[in-house]
Specification:
alpha+beta, Alpha-Beta Plaits, 3 domains
Amino acid sequence: MRLDKWLANSGIGSRKEVKKLLKTGAVTVNGKMEKDPKVQVKPDQDQVMLFDEPVEYREFVYLMMNKPPGVISATEDKQDETVVDLLDDLHKNFDPHPVGRLDKDTEGFLLLTNDGGLSHRLLSPKHHVPKTYFARINGEVTQTDIAAFKEGVTLDDGYKTKPGELVILSAGLESTIELTITEGKFHQVKRMFQSVGKEVVYLKRLSMGALVLDEELELGEYRELTEEELSLLKGE
């Protein structure tokens, strides 16, 4: 890979900052001063030093974001702001992508990573990774709805969902609930409630697998996962 990518992914700075640093002659590759950001280096073979200190290459990044409404779960878009647009230059250097999607108007837990293997495992239907949502519902949610969700409901396209665990927090003209599902069909939570004649007016994802949204993260904020959280996510 390019030397500037190695340095950027190691937390030294943005690509632009790294290029300025290289010009000063502070970086060596295998003991030789290197100023060319385009020079190719091999993480498993070459030794990169900055001010005579070894620079450890980091391949993957794992980010927990509290996604705000109005932002789309994509890496780029010509019209709307994306979750990647909310990242600083250091984390953009890793080219992370959102694991699954949250609707544009949905808030809450979103994982971003460049670890394609982990993304695939978390999104694979055969692994049944649970995702829990909080929602406000226009209409009274009842025990009948709990039973229907437990059996799986039929969506507007004829698809029958896998069982969902519905918990009523409050019931009335507007109800509040938590729903845990193991799928990620398009607008699934909204469509599940539509199937029982009710409308979701607010939706927030609280967790994915064993990971729960950090309550200290304001809307639009994110942080790297801790080692403990990463182990939970990987099921170690």
